[in-house]
Amino acid sequence: MNQDLQEPMAEIMPNIITAMSYLLQRVSETNDHLSQKQSISGFHGITKPSISIRSYLERIFKYANCSHSCYIVAYIYLDRFIKKQPFLLINSFSVHRFIITSVLVSAKFMDDL
């Protein structure tokens, strides 16, 4: 019975990673076109990372060993950040740093004892 519960979660996580990467890709591409209104922060890199958002999330998923709920909470944190900081946009220069930060914070909140 326990194995039956684990198999659906294994199928859901790649879908969550796919959905999260798709949404963040759309947000970053949309915000790339609004460069005149953007503020620069410590999250912004000088160049765009060569790794895709999906590959980056898959890599975090593979090596971070976070619980499944961490990725959902990480996306909620990013969504709240976007609403609270409308002039600090997530774009191609900052999305990777925002992803790792939100996953780290959510793992600390969800997984640490």
Question: In words, what does this structure look like?
Answer:
The protein is an all-alpha fold. The chain has a domain at 67-112. It has helices spanning 2-32, 53-64, 68-84, 95-111. Helix 1 runs antiparallel to helix 2, helix 2 packs parallel to helix 4 (95-111) and helix 3 (68-84) crosses helix 4. The longest helix is centred in the N-terminal third of the chain and has 31 residues, at 2-32. It is globular and about 40 Å long. Residues 1-10 have low confidence and may be disordered. This is Cyclin. GO terms for molecular function: protein kinase binding. It comes from Brassica campestris (Field mustard). Pfam families: Cyclin (PF08613).
Structural descriptors:
113 residues, mainly alpha, 68% helix, globular, disordered N terminus
Order of helices and strands: HHHH
Rg on CA atoms, Å: 15 Å
The tally of helices reads 4
Biggest sheet statistics: none
- Mean pLDDT metric: 82
Report the sheet-strand fraction: under 5%
Structural class, from helix and strand content? mainly alpha
Report the uncertain regions. Answer: 1-10
Name the shape in a single word: globular
Q: How many beta-strand elements?
A: 0
| Terminal Cα span | 27 Å
Helix content: 55-70%
Summarize the structure.
The chain is mainly α and 113 residues long. It contains four helices and no strands. It has a domain at 67-112.
Task: Itemize the secondary structure elements and their pairings.
Layout: H1 2-32, H2 53-64, H3 68-84, H4 95-111
Helix pairs in contact: 1-2, 1-3, 2-4, 3-4
